[in-house]
Design brief:
By secondary structure, this protein is mainly β. The protein contains one helix and eight strands; from the N terminus they run E-E-E-E-E-H-E-E-E.
């Protein structure tokens, strides 16, 4: 079982809007919404249009030694990313188009078979 992080390291609930489906709405940019969610294996950043904020266009997965660590990595990357089309947040491991980064850097990028 993954170790749990102390609560002082978790994002403060008031820092982000929490959507009904559990996603954190990190920011609204001129390009759309930037959200972060968790699942059984980690966390992911999604971007969606202002017109349809419930359907995401792309996503990037983050994995850590625990879901909380993956969540913190994804939240930090989402904060730094401007959401501009054609760009991506830093540090992701898998992307919605099938690309993988073994160590989270572009130098290790490949496509999964």
């Amino acid at each position: 079982m993954d170790p749990e992080l102390p609560s002082e390291f978790l994002p403060a609930p008031e820092s982000y809007s929490r959507l009904d489906d559990g996603r954190f709405r990190v920011k609204i940019t001129e390009f759309g919404y930037v959200d972060v969610s968790t699942d059984l294996t980690g966390a992911k950043i999604t971007d969606s249009s202002i017109e349809d904020g419930d359907t995401y266009r792309r996503h990037w997965k983050y994995y850590g030694h625990s879901r909380q660590l993956a969540l913190l990595q994804a939240l930090a990357a989402a904060e730094e990313w401007d959401g501009q089309p054609g760009t991506e947040p830093d540090g992701w491991v898998t992307a919605s188009d099938g690309r993988r980064r073994l160590d989270g850097t572009s130098g290790s990028e490949c496509y999964a078979p």
